[in-house]
Structure formats: structure tokens, C-alpha cells
Amino acid sequence: MRTLLKSKIHRARVTDARIDYEGSITIDPLLMEAADILPHEQVHVLDVTNGARLVTYAIPGRPGSGEVCINGAAAHLVRPGDVVIVLSYVTLQEEEARRHQPRLVYVDEANRIVERAGAH
Q: What average pLDDT does the structure give for the chain?
């Protein structure tokens, strides 16, 4: 078994950070769908702005909103305006892993999709 990158939302801009929340990252469901991230799926968040890295789970926000909101304790690490990369992973058998292509979603400053690459 090998664990590989399943999908990536590249250089999204954080729109909000809510400390008083149970925890997670709220993402525009259009971005989640494009990146093949399911509600409550584990994701890694890499903050390009300050170097913070964290693991949480994704929950859908409002469709078309461009929302990328850090919730709970992670809001101490990631602030509105920060640029982040959101990653999801998959564990595959060796043979399937060798054929796997991750789904890559590139966004602009308003978190609108500008390019897609990889598996779709």
C-alpha cells in the first residue's frame, strides 16, 4: 500500500478564521467538488504565508462563495488573507498507485477556479 496525493486546491486565499467553532475548514463546495474532497474528509492545510501546517476535515460552505474559512483552534495559526494549499490523500495498492494521477485545482485571488490538471 502507498499513500499518494489525491487532490490539491492550490494557493487559495483564506476568507475568514473563526476560533469559536468546533474545528475544521469550511470550503466552497464547488472547490471541494473540483478537488474531489468529500464533506468531513481529512485534509492537510499548508499555509504558504506563514509556514503553518495542520490536519483537519473539510465541510462545505456556500456554493459559489469562494469561501475558505479556518475554524476552531487552527484559527490561531491561519489568518484571513493567508495563502494556503489544501491537500487530500489516498492509500492505494501498488499497481493502482503507479497509475494514479492527482486532481489539481488552481484558483485566483477570489478562490475562483482558473485551471485544472490531473485526473478529472
A: 95
